[in-house]
Amino acid sequence: MSVPGMRRAAVGLTALAVAALGAVATTPEQADARPKPVDVTLLALNDFHGNLEPPSGSSGTIAGQTAGGVEYLATHLAELRAAAKRKNTITVAAGDLIGASPLLSAAFHDEPTIEALSMAGLDYASVGNHEFDEGAAELLRIQNGGCHPVDGCADGTPYRGAGFKYLSANAFKTATGKPLMAPYAIHKVQGVKVGFIGMTLEGTPQIVSQQGVAGLTFADEAETANRYARELRRKGVQTIVVLLHEGGAQAATGGINDCVGMTGPIVDIANRMDPSIDVVVSGHTHQAYICNINGKLVTSASSFGRLVTDIDLKIDRRSGDVISAAANNVVVTRDVAKDPKQTALIDRYKTVLGPVADRQVGETTEAITKTQETLFGTSLGESPLGNLVADAQLAATDDEQNAVAAFMNPGGVRADLNAGPVTYEEAFTVQPFANNLVTLDLTGAQLYCVLEQQFVTGRTLYPSSTVGYVVDPAGTTGTATDPCTGTRVVRGSLTIGGTAVDTAATYRVTVNNFLAGGGDGFSALTGGTNQVTGLIDLDALVAYLTAQSPVSAPALDRIRTTAEVPAA
After folding, report:
1. Burial category of 178 from C-beta neighbours within 10 Å (exposed 0-12, middle 13-18, buried 19 and up)
2. Regarding beta strands 559-561 and 467-471, do their DSSP bridges make them parallel or antiparallel, or are they unpaired?
């Protein structure tokens, strides 16, 4: 919609998020004289995370229906294209297509997912934070092809690269100041140009290992979008779509096509974007919504390939401006025929993977979920599976490194464990990052600071069973520059092994290397000394499940509030 100086009139969006834009003909004769607009359909997804097979448990349902699986996703995409006239359809994604993936994809460095989405007809995708998990060089290999430099072509066939184009507008090579990958693409439909700008969240360095973002600098999302929108307009592009791996969340009462009480970074970002930007396909938060923010259509399709956002644009044939935009999130149900090419791809990689995936490594007496309990009104409490993972990491380092406590970041616990036998593949799905355990020295004062930093970052560290402390909801939160000034953790309440922590004493504590490097904003952990790197986190979990089976869900009694433990 980018005629300079033009004010755009947008009607309020319904659940279908219709934004009517541009001038309206005043008479039937004028309307008849106008050339018919170009109808363009965008089919959008985000946060696929290598879920080639249907996700299990709660991750495999949405809007009351079982959903997901690339065999069904490909079929739904084909049906949506057929309904919208295939030649006018562009398929896009907003990042995290790979990374934090199930074993079937991750064992092959996510090549199967790239092949599957290429076959499914993906055209353009923004990078997400997880695209950087294995570093910039690996991301470029994923785009361009070639065997892995260490593992080679594990399935015995050449890896040809992505059949779609990754876009990365706000990740710059620090040494040169140039974008790592193409910042945007221009796609022509019936003579009309549609521009796509792709990028990840500016905070990617805080949530990816430092090795993954080495040599890169990440810029502000809105400023970057506006910069490249100007460049696109100079090239005659008036319809501009941003594929952004950052998002928000609506209130729990909102459905998959609603926008109720929208909050999160996407609100500020969209409000700061230039009026010439028409659509923002967002992601990262794994939420579903269809919104009108600052006159822009803003969408998200949850995660794991359970939804496809069907976006319909009407574009003025003469000016290239968007006349109207509408969107609807479509559930990827499993009541359609499986795409046979996707089935063949899955079968091929499962054969190569062999019996490793099906090896039983333990057993649970009940389902153990990653769901966090509510702590003073927010989901900032403990998690049964998170606690179990922390216990496993302590068990792997208590004798070897004399660790007395362990802490696990919530973003590293990726899936539930079902009741019954646990396979290696299921354990991998819980812990897919291959992070090393790091045991380090922290003083008692530093431990209190780490726990206070939870309330600055908005992320709770899952503690091992040796740890206990009390939180005061009325306490103050520290600052980003000095989290230690917070008073949320009641002083004197922190215990390790049942003994009160001495702020002047030193304790051996285990975390993963992501946290040890300050990941998720836990900069206080970088002050740890005498670091020793140990097992891969998955190996620690597998060893624990094997040794302790049958395993039950740990109690959620390690973090308590002053309401539960009144002051003495």
Report:
1. exposed
2. parallel
